[in-house]
Structure formats: structure tokens, C-alpha cells
Automatic annotation (TrEMBL), chain A:
Domain 2Fe-2S ferredoxin-type residue range list: 4-80
Keyword line: 2Fe-2S, Iron, Iron-sulfur, Metal-binding, Oxidoreductase
Natural source organism: Acuticoccus mangrovi
Signal peptide bounds: none
PROSITE patterns in the cross-refs: 2FE2S_FER_1, 2FE2S_FER_2
Any one GO molecular-function label of the UniProt entry: 2 iron, 2 sulfur cluster binding
Entry protein name: (2Fe-2S)-binding protein
UniProtKB/TrEMBL annotation, chain B:
Feature: compositional bias, Pro residues: 541-556
Composition bias type Polar residues, residue spans: 564-574
Annotated ranges, domain Aldehyde oxidase/xanthine dehydrogenase a/b hammerhead: 35-146
InterPro entries membership: Ald_Oxase/Xan_DH_a/b, Ald_Oxase/Xan_DH_a/b_sf, Ald_Oxase/xanthine_DH-like, AldOxase/xan_DH_MoCoBD1, AldOxase/xan_DH_Mopterin-bd_sf
Region (Disordered): 467-574
Gene3D superfamilies named among the record's database cross-references: Aldehyde oxidase/xanthine dehydrogenase, a/b hammerhead, Aldehyde oxidase/xanthine dehydrogenase, molybdopterin binding domain
One GO MF term: oxidoreductase activity
Biased composition (Basic and acidic residues): 509-535
Keywords of this entry: Molybdenum, Oxidoreductase
Protein name (Swiss-Prot/TrEMBL): Xanthine dehydrogenase family protein molybdopterin-binding subunit
Transmembrane segments: none
Species annotation: Acuticoccus mangrovi
Length: 161, 574
């Protein structure tokens, strides 16, 4: 099968990988780049576990053709912390018990990160809307919503870890 | 949302001097979760990873006349196609690890399929897409058989036989009865004297656990002739034991790594991904991944089973329930999995948290041509609780009583004898009702407000019934309680219903003579008969019957126990 080289910025670092025609970004990130933070949950764009940020906007990596990010920027949970310093969202998820099994958490964090970048002071309704494409079977969402609102209130403060 | 603790209730029963319980504690895995570093099974990368996909039955019930894998084997990237004959010991039931029930499920169907989606072949290929495409090239000559999808239809004479291990479509309890019994007092006599008899029928649908991480496992060759297996299982030692049995290998050769589960909710208790992935690795020498996609998770992944309950209550004009009768049908689907156990648990729970002097239950574990059912979040209890609490409302409506007052009146109190012949301890239904009514602004009578779980119980209510009506209804012969205890093959059942020969009641597929790992990686599947070898477990010495869940001797005085909590015995109070 034909392979095609693509280049993109991944969490600030330059990457060049060969991708199969038709390969999705989720597989390329996980198997090609070795970034295991986006998760496979459905392969159909319904669960949100594979959410990453492409050129500043949240995208479902399982439905994104890898070729389309050529020359672009891809950000994932692997790039949220700076060394041992967690992002405000990661801190808030920890302190609010906003993860149980942890499988949806990466997608949740990416949807929330994209939200707060564009809208640093979202209302509760805007938070709910922003994560409406991310399914969680454990928490019942309340803790996640509270965590995102708390992170927004903290103005992006970071804690030394 | 803040949690409200009502520590004023039963305050003298707690010292509240615990160091950890009741205090917020960070999860030890939380840092891994928020940094994406938690090691789920699929987060282990292997060079040359192969992908396993299954060709599945499009029929609810069919005989397999022939499986032709030759076209699939020639497809690009295909390393091997596995069929039933490649599975060393292709018959198991999950609870055989406790010797509870007969082996009744194949890893890959050999001669017949009994539910839609049952695997009939497994393709191992270099990429997932190649495996999918090769699955479509597996040719199966099906002979569709009549199927049955309803529990009560399945136990009528002449219904299609679903599972060869249980020709009557009913699991056999303790080798004796085609249902699980509860007999306590004399329900029929009490119903005759009751002021009202209230009947109801309740139906629960299957529920898929739907974890965000689909079920799966990755196996790879390890040093010292071992295999490592990363798995999403919720029950590592169930999975290990199942793999050992199906693959006929020593557990010392299997290195299982689990513990990070992307949501389970019961659906990952009895997964069959580990043996399939390990078998793929044995046959190809390659790391192999077998993972449900979302469609398989929903269609083939074992759900909480459907349940149907018939309830008959005898109730007096003053609201006292004097008799409660249950007839229940659990839809196990095509194989037993954990449905047999769900019923044991459910029957121990009857008649719900109420003190009723006459209780009767016949609960059937029924095989149908639906997806095998398994564990999910309180399974065995949640379904019948829905029926019981719905029925309480019906009873209240019938006699014109407030539904919460009816519950408080009939609630079990400390010291009451329960239908499974243990004294009730630590009861709290009265207080639950009072708090719930208060929260809802629901007015209660002075008597209901004054009621307490600590008073009014015991005494005559601690006595066992003077007479319990028993019967041999549903007695079967020729069964043993488990496959290890059984020795040979099960005999035809007698008694209830017509014993029906099972269509396609296949003898066990013959195990491979040589361990498959000794074969070259691109071995062509053999189609010649191989020498019969007794399955490893058939020759095991007979084991003693497992202790039956029979209740302790009637009249046994309640034990005084030290202060401790047990979810089984319910000991909490001194």
C-alpha cells in the first residue's frame, strides 16, 4: 500500500512520519509517533476518547485522515504538563476526582483545553456543550464539569509538581 | 454535589476513629490518568504486532456444514486463520474454576453457532484492515436452524435446543433441579387467607456495560518459553485460569499483566480475548492483539442479561404482606457465563428488604439464542429489585395505602428472620424511607415517623416458620454439579419437560496432538483427523462436591461476632 510522508508539529516538536493512504490520525499518533494519550473507544467519532487539538481546534483523531494534518500542529495530553508541572486543568481534574477509570480523561482534557484557550471564563452551559462529544461511563460528568470551571477560575495557574 | 452523611443515625454503632475511611484520599492512579500515562493494555507497543479479527455468525442459530478458509489464507498480510480445531481444549464455562456448572462454551464454534456474532474463525493478519478483509473471505456453509429468543418460549416442549450441555434449555442447579429454589413457610396457604392477592409481571432488557475502552488483550512471546499477556480484564485470575484451560498449558507459562481497566462494569469479568490472543501468538510466533471494535462490544460483548419476573403477593387490609411468590426467568443467552451465579445471588436476596413470613421462589436460568449474558453492576439483584419495588407500589395502590408507609410497615428490622434463614442485622430501610420522604417533602404518619430499624424486630419475628412446604418440582437426574465432578458426559435429563436430543450436540472437538507452538509460523491448517487424546481435565481425580449453599441448620442461635464489617455476613454491630 502506498505510503506518504507527512510532517507536523506535535506538542511543539517537529515530526516526520510515513503514513498509509487512508490512515487515521489516531493510529498514526499511537503507532507511528508513539503518543499513546489519544485513546480508541469507538472508531466512529461518537465517544470522544481520541480527541486531540489540531491547529487550535478539538478534533476526533479517529475520523481525521492523517494526511490532512501535514504542515499543521497537533497537540495532545502528552504536551499539557511542562516537565513535572501540571496544567491547571490537570490539577483541577486531580483535586475534583474528575477521573475514575481514566480512559476518557485524555479526550476530556483536550476538549476542555480547547475550550479554555478560546473562552477562558466559560459558563457552566458552555462547559457542558464543550464536552458534550466526550462520553464518560464512570463519573457522571459532574466532577468533570466542576473541575473545568475551577481550572477556568484559577486562570491557568500551574503548580510545581 | 456534596454528599450528606447522616451520622446521627446508628451513631452508637460506630466509633468514627478510623484513620482513612471517611477522609478524602487521592487515588493512587490519578496522576497517571491526567497525564495520559496510565498503562491500559493497548498502550503496549510491539514491533510486528499482528491483529486478530473474527468471522462471526450472521445467524441466531445454525449448523456449520463447512468452514472454508482457503481464500482468506491467501489474502495479503494474512499469517494464519484459526478455526475450532486449533483450540487445544475448546470447551469451557467460566465458573468451572469453581466447578460450578458444566462446560458449555467453545472459544471458536466447531459444529454449530447459537447466537448472532459467535466466532467461527479468527484471522491473524499484519494490519487490522487486512484482518477485516480476510474475515469477509472466510466462506461458511451454514444450515440455519430454528432459534428461540424468549425465555418462556425456550422452555416449552419442542423449543429449539440452544446448548448441548443443557438439552432442556435450563441450567441445572447442584446437579438436581432445573431451577434455583427458595421455600420458606407455606405461600399457597397464606395466599388463600390473604385479604388481597396482587400479581405482576416485570421485564428487564439486556444492558450493555459499554466501557469506553473496548475489551481486548495483547499477547507476545516472552523469554523462557512463556507468553506475556496484557489484558483489559477485570478478573485477572479468571482470565488466567480460562486461558490455561482452553489452551491446555501450565499457568507458569502465562504472564498476565492487567489492573488498568478502561471501564468494566462487569463486562470484562469473563472476556475470552486473552486465550485468543495467546493462541494467535502460539500459532504465529508473533505478538497478537485481539480487540473488540465498538460494534462487537455492543453486539457480541456479554451484557447484563434480560430478566422476567412474576410476583404474587398476599396482603392484608392493614398492609401486612403475608406471602410473596416469585417465578423468575433469567435470559442467559446461549451459554451460562455468570447467569447461574446471578440467580444464586438474587435468590439469596429475596423477598427484598422486607419481613414476610411466607416466601417462595422458582428462578430459572434459561438458554436462548441471544448474546451470552454476564456480570454488570449488582446483576442478579438490580433486576428483581426493580420488580419488587414496582410491585410494592402496586400493592400500596391496591389496598389504598401510602407506598412509603407500606414499605416502613413491612421493612425488616434488626433480629428478624429472613427467608434465607439468617437473622437480619444492621437493617436501615426504615430510616432510608424516613430520610427520603423528608427530602421529598412527603408527609408520613406519626407511626411511620416513629418507626425504627432497632425496635419491633426479633421475638416471634425471629422464629423460623413452623412449617415449610417443600417439593421435588423441577427435579432432574443424570446431571452433576460441575464438569470436573461429572467425569463423563452428562446424561439426558429426566423429569420436567420432554428430554430433547440436542441438534448438533457435538462431541468435544479433538485437541491437537502437539502443542501448537511447535508448528512453523505459516503452517497450513490440518484437515486430517488427529489421534484422540483425552482432554487434560477429564482424567483428573473426582473432586468432592462443592459445598452447597444450603442454609445453616434451623434454630441455630445467632452468632456473636467481634466488631467488623463483612459484605457477606453483614456484621457491623457489636
Amino acid at each position: 500500500m502506498a505510503q506518504k510522508p507527512i510532517r507536523f508539529t506535535h506538542n511543539g516538536a517537529e515530526r516526520a512520519v510515513f503514513v498509509e493512504e487512508g490512515a487515521n490520525l489516531l493510529d498514526v499518533l499511537r503507532r507511528g509517533v508513539g503518543d499513546l494519550t489519544p485513546k480508541y473507544g469507538c472508531g466512529q467519532g461518537t465517544c470522544g476518547a481520541c480527541t486531540v487539538i489540531v491547529d487550535g481546534a478539538p478534533r476526533l483523531s479517529c475520523l481525521t485522515l492523517a494526511e490532512t494534518v501535514d504542515g499543521g500542529r497537533v497537540d495532545t495530553v502528552a504536551g499539557l504538563a511542562e516537565g513535572n508541572r501540571l496544567s491547571a486543568l490537570q490539577e483541577a481534574f486531580m483535586s475534583h476526582f474528575a477521573a475514575q477509570c481514566g480512559y476518557c480523561t485524555d479526550g476530556m482534557l483536550m476538549s476542555a483545553t480547547a475550550l479554555l484557550k478560546d473562552n477562558p471564563r466559560p459558563t457552566r452551559e458552555e462547559v457542558v456543550e464543550a464536552i458534550s462529544g466526550n462520553l464518560c461511563r464512570c463519573t457522571g460528568y459532574e466532577a468533570i464539569i466542576e473541575a473545568i470551571l475551577t481550572a477556568a477560575g484559577s486562570g491557568g495557574a500551574r503548580r510545581a509538581g | 454535589m456534596a454528599i450528606e452523611f447522616r451520622k446521627d443515625l446508628f451513631a452508637d454503632e460506630r466509633d468514627d476513629d478510623l484513620n482513612e475511611i471517611g477522609k478524602p484520599t487521592q487515588r493512587q492512579d490519578m496522576l497517571g490518568h491526567v497525564t495520559g500515562r496510565s498503562p491500559f493494555y493497548d498502550d503496549h507497543l510491539f514491533d510486528g504486532l499482528c491483529h486478530i479479527r473474527c468471522a462471526r455468525s450472521p445467524h441466531h442459530h445454525a449448523r456449520i456444514r463447512r468452514v472454508d478458509t482457503s481464500a482468506a489464507e491467501r489474502m495479503p498480510g494474512v499469517r494464519r486463520v484459526i478455526t475450532a480445531r486449533d483450540v487445544p481444549h475448546n470447551l469451557n464455562t467460566l465458573l468451572s474454576l469453581l466447578d460450578f456448572g458444566l462446560d458449555d462454551e467453545e472459544l471458536i464454534a466447531s459444529e454449530r453457532v447459537a447466537y448472532k456474532g459467535e466466532p467461527v474463525a479468527a484471522v491473524i493478519a499484519d494490519t487490522e484492515r487486512q484482518a477485516r478483509e480476510a474475515c469477509r473471505a472466510v466462506r461458511v456453509d451454514w444450515e440455519a436452524l430454528p432459534h428461540v429468543l424468549d425465555v418462556e418460549e425456550a422452555i416449552k416442549p419442542g423449543a429449539p435446543a440452544v446448548n448441548p450441555a443443557y438439552p432442556g434449555n435450563l441450567f441445572v442447579y447442584h446437579g438436581k433441579y432445573d431451577h434455583q429454589k427458595l421455600r420458606y413457610g407455606d405461600v399457597e396457604a397464606a395466599l388463600r387467607t390473604a385479604d388481597h392477592v396482587v400479581t405482576g409481571r416485570y421485564q428487564m432488557s439486556p444492558i450493555e456495560q459499554a466501557p469506553i475502552e473496548t475489551c481486548g488483550a495483547i499477547a507476545a512471546p516472552e523469554t523462557n518459553d512463556r507468553f506475556v499477556c496484557y489484558t483489559s480484564t477485570q478478573a485477572l485470575f479468571f482470565s488466567l485460569g480460562t486461558a490455561v484451560k482452553l489452551l491446555d498449558v501450565s499457568s507458569a507459562r502465562l504472564h498476565f499483566i492487567g489492573g488498568t481497566v478502561g471501564g468494566g462494569f462487569g463486562g470484562k469479568v469473563d472476556s475470552l480475548h486473552e486465550p485468543m490472543a495467546i493462541l494467535g501468538t502460539m500459532l504465529t510466533g508473533r505478538p497478537c492483539k485481539y480487540m473488540f471494535d465498538r460494534e462487537e462490544e455492543m453486539q457480541v460483548g456479554a451484557p447484563r442479561g434480560a430478566e422476567r419476573w412474576y410476583l404474587t403477593d398476599g396482603v392484608m387490609n392493614d398492609g401486612r404482606i403475608v406471602a410473596r411468590k416469585f417465578v423468575g426467568y433469567f435470559d442467559a443467552g446461549a451459554t451460562t457465563r455468570l447467569s447461574s451465579y446471578a440467580i444464586i445471588k438474587g435468590v439469596g436476596h429475596l423477598p427484598g428488604p422486607y419481613t414476610i413470613p411466607n416466601v417462595y421462589a422458582d428462578v430459572y436460568c434459561v438458554f436462548t439464542n441471544r448474546t451470552p449474558a454476564t456480570a454488570m453492576r449488582g446483576f442478579g439483584v438490580t433486576g428483581v429489585d426493580f420488580a419488587i419495588e414496582s410491585h410494592m407500589d402496586e400493592v400500596a395502590d391496591t389496598i389504598g395505602m401510602d407506598p412509603i408507609e407500606l414499605r416502613i410497615l413491612n421493612a425488616y428490622r434488626d433480629g428478624d428472620m429472613k427467608a434465607h434463614r439468617r437473622l437480619a442485622k444492621n437493617t436501615a430501610l426504615v430510616e432510608c424511607c424516613q430520610v427520603a420522604a423528608g427530602k421529598a417533602g412527603w408527609g408520613l404518619s406519626q407511626a411511620a415517623r416513629a418507626a425504627s430499624s432497632l425496635t419491633g424486630g426479633g421475638g416471634a419475628r425471629a422464629e423460623l416458620p413452623a412449617f415449610t412446604a417443600t417439593d421435588e418440582h423441577g427435579r432432574v437426574a443424570g446431571f452433576s454439579s460441575g464438569s470436573y465432578a461429572q467425569g463423563g458426559r452428562p446424561a439426558e435429563p429426566t423429569g420436567r419437560g420432554d428430554p430433547r436430543p440436542a441438534p448438533g450436540s457435538a462431541p468435544r472437538p479433538e485437541p491437537r496432538h502437539e502443542p501448537p507452538r511447535h508448528e512453523p509460523p505459516r503452517h497450513e491448517p490440518s484437515r486430517t483427523p488427529e489421534p484422540r487424546r483425552e482432554p487434560a481435565y477429564a482424567g483428573a481425580p473426582p473432586r468432592p462436591e462443592p459445598p452447597s449453599p444450603a442454609p445453616p441448620a434451623p434454630g441455630e442461635p445467632p452468632r456473636r461476632a467481634p466488631t467488623r464489617f463483612s459484605s457477606i455476613s453483614g456484621l457491623r454491630r457489636r
